[in-house]
Amino acid sequence: MTETAPRPTLEAVAARAGVSRATVSRVVNGGEGVREPLVERVRRAVEELGYVPNQAARSLVTKRHDAVAVVIAEPETRVFADPFFALQLRGISKELTAHDSQLVLLLTEGRADHARVGRYLAGGHVDGALVFSLHLDDPLPELVQRAGVPTVFGGRPDWGEGNRSVYVDSDNRGGAREAVRHLVGLGRRRVAHITGALDQTSAVDRLDGFRDVVVDADPRLIAEGDFTPAGGERAMRLLLERCPDLDAVFAANDLAASGALRVLRAQGRRVPEDVAVVGFDDMLPVAEQTDPPLTTIRQDIEEMGRLMAGLLLRALDRRGTPLDDGPGADGGSGVVLPTTLVRRASA
Amino acid sequence: MTETAPRPTLEAVAARAGVSRATVSRVVNGGEGVREPLVERVRRAVEELGYVPNQAARSLVTKRHDAVAVVIAEPETRVFADPFFALQLRGISKELTAHDSQLVLLLTEGRADHARVGRYLAGGHVDGALVFSLHLDDPLPELVQRAGVPTVFGGRPDWGEGNRSVYVDSDNRGGAREAVRHLVGLGRRRVAHITGALDQTSAVDRLDGFRDVVVDADPRLIAEGDFTPAGGERAMRLLLERCPDLDAVFAANDLAASGALRVLRAQGRRVPEDVAVVGFDDMLPVAEQTDPPLTTIRQDIEEMGRLMAGLLLRALDRRGTPLDDGPGADGGSGVVLPTTLVRRASA
DNA sequence: CCCGCGCCGGAAAGCGCTCTCAGCGCCATG
DNA sequence: CATGGCGCTGAGAGCGCTTTCCGGCGCGGG
User: Fold this and answer.
1) Which residues contact B112 (CB under 8 A, 6 or more apart)?
2) Residue A253 near residue A279, CB atoms below 8 Å
3) Alpha-carbon distance B76 to B108, whole Å?
4) CB of B306 within 8 A of CB of B91?
5) What pLDDT is attached to residue A152?
6) Looking at the partner chain, which of B90, B164, B229 has a beta carbon nearest the beta carbon of A107?
7) Which of B119, B123, B289 sits opposite A290 (nearest CB)?
8) Strand C-proximal residues, CB under 7 Å?
9) Could you tell me the pTM of the whole model?
């Protein structure tokens, strides 16, 4: 608002406290090895002057930034028509805050932006990066790899096991299995599956989970969706047409399930009496709002975010030890979070 | 991942190009006053070495950071059980990116965090701040004010007209008027209103808009909600009890409307035949998913974000001119974005 | 042919901070 | 009483960059 008043410097504090800059610096950074009376005097000077250290100057010499980049690719932001985004970010933020780190958000808009992100990461503005890259052909992983910035991925990257990378993911496959088992446990015999966008590992994993339970699934019982309500509708219509006798549907996410629900209702099928439906994600505003409320697989999104940040920070703390040492043997490692079945009315 | 290789410095580039550091600096920052052959040589050296300027060192001398803080208070993140958040951020990000600025996200978790945010802003890490502070008693505005950081608010701050502050807001009052007029135009005579959380100006403004149209509204036709589905349900029940003859409801947002819809259906009222319902926000995953799909007031969230960022950046560019000069005379100014009615099935 | 003006490029002074290193005073010891 | 050692403080050297201030060079006019 008003003119930015010149901030007091270390020098000023030192002068006021009648000590050297070095001493002030020591006090400000933990006060080791400075005697009490001096500490007190410095503290007071800091207080009185309203001194706040200049981060730029500090970074210049320490080479730490206490900042972490969160990179989210454009396609994701569309998926973030759900609270996924906010929750994840919140978890990350909490963890970073606890470690006095800042969150720098990098949203990318298509290919052109990748160069920008690469430059930014390579520019050494941040200590590490959290990357959400759920698409198979995404150049982002490659990019951060080259930038040489310690990175943790959100969601299992698609590259082979050989590649060393750290990631946090939900137990998509296990969750899917649980969903389908629940359906089967209900006595359903013709369980269909609406997949997610199959260029994302989460969708592939959920499909795999489905297949784990419905071994030799009738291929006509599997329809490709894209995680959207519209895609869910399309898939459901196709499914109904191909297999009018289906008695259950496992949709790759709640959004798709909501679309399926609408088609089912429109075609006069009762849920769950005629067709039982299970979703995935437990995104509240959707799952609770559908009619009937959706039985679904919950994943703890916020915890995922927190974990990602935690993993990165820990790696950063013990720099030198490469990040990719960890539970997962020698080549990258992943942390997979459990999912739980939430029973509502739809199955 | 691997050890962070030491980045090349200006010095290194200069050596390689056979010029002085100053010349390299000039070329890197726009290349004014350096002759073509030299420019070319420097460019090549930069390329070959993969030089990226060190932002910390640069900030230290320029006092610019090319970064803007986005401050979002915890209560908001709850509201962000909708895509509001993501969209807003996306708009902001786009604008900032176009101006080569970074987005630093500050999520606050309750009071304790305010000090942290204050310190951060005062610390001169960013050039300006975008603050979302929708609550009447929020200390955030006060805080950024004191930090002396140029700021643009998202949503009209609650303080009086006398206060100078820049903000961007939706035309909540106008939108509300339009919603209610639509209902009245449909021939509805007993229009009720479910308010939002009245400690937010948006809720107050929407209520005011309602009153603008329904002058001398029966106070029993107004029930306080809190922008949540649960609150909407409660309010709807209360309303039905007090005024069984109501024939329309304007809910302060879509979430509340969805709750109201459920209660209406449960009590056997047909929508829109018996009771017409209009929401606010047009948050797609909710508004399109309800049964029947919700007629609502749309606001362009992304544009709001873009505008906020644009306003701030422009102010930053012409530093010296205080931010609070602008269309709104001498004491702060606000930009209010129009809203539009989206007709679906509920009214 | 020489001088002056203008433009180009280099030298150098920091920006605010951290951190090493040396020095000083004090206590414990011989 | 002298000496070694240790703990605390201060001086100073940069971190990598921008930017001001000049010196030097090339050109046109006298």
Assistant:
1) none
2) yes
3) 10
4) yes
5) 94
6) B90
7) B289
8) A 6, 9-11, 21-22, 25, 28-29, 51, 53-54, 57-58, 60-62; B 19-23, 33-35, 38, 57, 60-61
9) 0.86
